[in-house]
Amino acid sequence: MFCILFVYILSYLTWTISPITLNDNGSHLATFSVKLLEFQNRGRRRMDGKCCGKSNDGLAHCQQPCSLEFLICLEPFGIPVSLTNSEPYSGPCVYGKTGTGHWGNSDVTYGVDEAPTHHINITLPWPVSLFGKF
Question: The Notch ligand N-terminal domain covers which part of the protein (predicted)?
Answer without folding.
Answer: 31-125
